[in-house]
Specification:
single chain; Rossmann fold; oxidoreductase; SDR_fam; NADP
C-alpha cells in the first residue's frame, strides 16, 4: 500500500476511546498510518491534544479529532460522540479501550475501589458501545474491545479487574449475537504483558520483575504496542469479515500458563508489601 501499511484504511473513520496513551495510542497511530481518519478520546485534554499531534504526524492527509470525556459520565459521552458525528457522520471502526487498574488484595480493597474499576472498565465500556451504536456504518462496522487476561485468568490483587474484564468479554460475545444481523462485528483483544505501558509498569514495577514476566512467556519476550495494533488492523479489516464474537489473546502464548505463574509471584510480592 502507498501508506506503508499492510492494510488500507483510507477514508475510513476510526474512533479510539482511551486512545491517548499506552496500547490504545499505538493502535490509533497504526490506523492513522494506514490512512484512516482517527478520533481519540480520554479524560485528559492535554493527552488528547498530544495524541492528535502524533496522529497528524503519522498521516497529514487524514482528518483527526480529539475529544475529552470520562466514560463514566454518560452526558459527557453524548456530547463527545455528537462531536464525532459532526465531523465524521459515521464510524467504520470503534476501539473501546478505557481501563482502570491498581493492585489490591480483596480483603483490603474498598467498596469504592472495586466500584471505580467496574464503573470504568465495564459500565464505561457499555456506555461507549451504546453511544457509538447509532453511528456505526452498516453492514460493515467493526468494534474491538481491548480486554485483559484477568478476564479469564484469576490473578491475586486483581479481583476488581478480573470481575470487570470478564464482563467486558461477555459484552463482546452477547453483542456479536445481537448486532450480527446488522452486519456489525465485535471482538475482544486480550493483550499480554506489553512493555512500556503504564499498566505493566504498575503491576511489575522493576526491571527484574519485568524480565521474570518475559521469561514466563512461551515466546520469551514481553510484547510491544505494535503487536496489539497489528491484531486490531487485521480484525477490523475485510480479511476478518467472518470473525465476530472472538476473544483473541495477543500475548505470545502467556495465557497458556505463564500468566498464572507470573501473577502468583507478583501476588507473593504484594503480600510482602502489605497490599
Amino acid at each position: 500500500m502507498s501508506n506503508g501499511s499492510a492494510f488500507n484504511y483510507t477514508n475510513k473513520n476510526v474512533v479510539v476511546v482511551g486512545g491517548t496513551s499506552g496500547i490504545n495510542l499505538n493502535v490509533a497511530i497504526a490506523f492513522a498510518k494506514a490512512g484512516a481518519n482517527v478520533a481519540v478520546a480520554s479524560r485528559n485534554i492535554d493527552k488528547v491534544n498530544n495524541a492528535v499531534d502524533l496522529l497528524n504526524q503519522a498521516n497529514a492527509n487524514g482528518t483527526h479529532l480529539g475529544v475529552s470525556f470520562d466514560v463514566r459520565d454518560n452526558d459527557a459521552l453524548t456530547l463527545g460522540f455528537a462531536e464525532i458525528a459532526k465531523h465524521y457522520g459515521h464510524i467504520d471502526v470503534l476501539i473501546s479501550g478505557a481501563a482502570g487498574n491498581f493492585p489490591a488484595s480483596a480483603a483490603k480493597l474498598s467498596t469504592n475501589g472495586f466500584k471505580s474499576v467496574i464503573d470504568i472498565d465495564l459500565i464505561g465500556s457499555f456506555q461507549v458501545l451504546k453511544q457509538a451504536y447509532p453511528l456505526l456504518k452498516r453492514p460493515t462496522a467493526s468494534i474491538i474491545q481491548i480486554s485483559a487476561p484477568q478476564a479469564f485468568i484469576a490473578m491475586p490483587l486483581q479481583a476488581h479487574v478480573c470481575a470487570a474484564k470478564a464482563g467486558v468479554d461477555m459484552l463482546t460475545r452477547t453483542l456479536a449475537l445481537e448486532w450480527g444481523i446488522e452486519g456489525v462485528r465485535i471482538n475482544s483483544i486480550v493483550p499480554g504483558p506489553i512493555a512500556d505501558t503504564e499498566g505493566f509498569n504498575r503491576l511489575a514495577p522493576s526491571d527484574e520483575l519485568q524480565q521474570r514476566v518475559a521469561n514466563s512467556v512461551p515466546l520469551k519476550r514481553n510484547g510491544q504496542g505494535q503487536d496489539i495494533a497489528n491484531a486490531a488492523l487485521f480484525l477490523a479489516s475485510d480479511m476478518a469479515s467472518y470473525i465476530t464474537g472472538v476473544v483473541l489473546p495477543v500475548d505470545g502464548g502467556w495465557s497458556l500458563g505463564g500468566a498464572s505463574i507470573a501473577m502468583t509471584e507478583l501476588g507473593d510480592l504484594g503480600a510482602k508489601q502489605g497490599l
